[in-house]
# Entry
Amino acid sequence: MTAGIGSGGKAFFRRAAAAFAGSAITLFARIVTAPRAIWSGIEPLPKQRVYFANHTSNADFVLLWTVLPPMLRARTRPVAALEYWLKTPLRAFIGRDVFNAVLIDRRPEERVEDPVALMGQALAEGSSLILFPEGVRNMTEEPLLPFRTGLFHLAKQNPEIDLVPVWISNLNRVMPKGEIIPLPLICTLTFGAPLHLGDTEEKGDFLARSHAALIALKETVPA
Amino acid sequence: MSATPHLIWLLLGVGVILVIATLIGEILRARIAPDGDNPVIENLNARISAWWGMVILLSLAFLAGRPGVVILFAVLSFSALREFLTLTAKARADHWSLAGAFFIVLPVQYWLVGLDWYGLYAIFIPVYAFLLMPVVSALRGETKSFLTRVAETQWALMICVYCVSHVPALLTLHIEGYEGRSVILIAWLIFTVQLSDVMQYVWGKLFGSRLVAPQLSPSKTWEGLIGGVMTATTAGAALWWMTPFTMLQAAGMALAVTLMGFFGGLVMSAIKRDKGVKDWGHLIAGHGGFLDRLDSVVFAAPIFFHLTRWFWT
# Structure
């Protein structure tokens, strides 16, 4: 009995701490980068969506999460790498409790659950997702790496859900890999028109089309 | 004599102007586009409500005295510098010098202004930052577009930190018979320059047809320029009694700062055109960024500071 109350109190405390940490992180992100959301192809409505974005920094999903209106943010879960976010207790708290991330294992030989099945499950529960279809952080000179196949499988299993491309600009300049001090430059996030899988569209064609749709948003952002 | 009664009169006057502007904005909306579908009227109303915020913030800083004013302008500098450096040329190798611009050069400049150390704050950025910042970038070894990168960074610091810091620096001027009232100089400068901007917009919207610089800006007209500068010069001269100037001197000063303000808008428009943006930022609704609102003050403040320092101290 006592133990039951104790663990209930602990869960409550953990939820409160997570909500507080979430507000603190979004405030910090706003002070550091003054992020600007441009909803050019779609409106910020409370519909179920998969936001897919370019990936240059670990802070990418934090920024995307920050610029979503609070009502949307509460139902949006980032898809993140399990082996990174479960490494330390602090990361686990941030990844699991604050962002409620869908944690997927990027190491095929280690994993027990299929990433696409985990994402599909989160969608079935009514959540929206933030996904980085490049799979890894882009450290190259190329603007965007080729997409992995996860986005295609999600599109196939959930044909009614909007797949929204989001181009995140400048974040790689705010915090390049290996630097400790972030530069407080303005980051712009451009939300493009939603995509759906065509009736007869093949995997390769769809991935090329979504890749092109994301990179096309880059051209609309100055500098 | 303390600055308070004059400052309160000026702020009350601005308050009355804003009340009238708010009423005109609401009447225009109700008469012409009650559904809020006229972009010019919506932008006008957004600008007026942002003005309320800016005036309230500035009043609070004035009430807090020198530390309040120095801190407010340091924060404005930071926001302006972020807008400018977001658009300048830079490479990975500049990370440390850019971090230095935000976290060392900017706070040190305002700290020196707060200390009233004129001999150092007048040269800190044009000499020390100018010589040492490129060294930090050079040590990282990247030579591609080196001159463009360091020159644009230095320009950002001069505009957003050095020039802006001359507004709170007005508090450090020791004018005989005007002790303890120098905050009025700031209020008068900002009022005159911003009134000129607003009246250029109003005259331009009402009567503007001939563009001053068609390649730079579609909204700067000769009618707006002449109407705005004349109105603001008259208003600045009419407020001579709260300044250390005679009425004629106040008119001359007002003409100088409003013309500098106009040139500031012109130069900053050229930079925006070059970088392919319409506004510097997005944080002040209806106006754009901090630099969109500060551009005229940036160019007017150092000139006003030195004219006052040379002839009145």
Summary: Residues 66-167 of chain B form one domain. Residues 4-32 of chain B form the longest helix (29 residues). Chain B has eleven helices and no strands. Chain B touches chain A through 20 residues (CB under 8 Å).
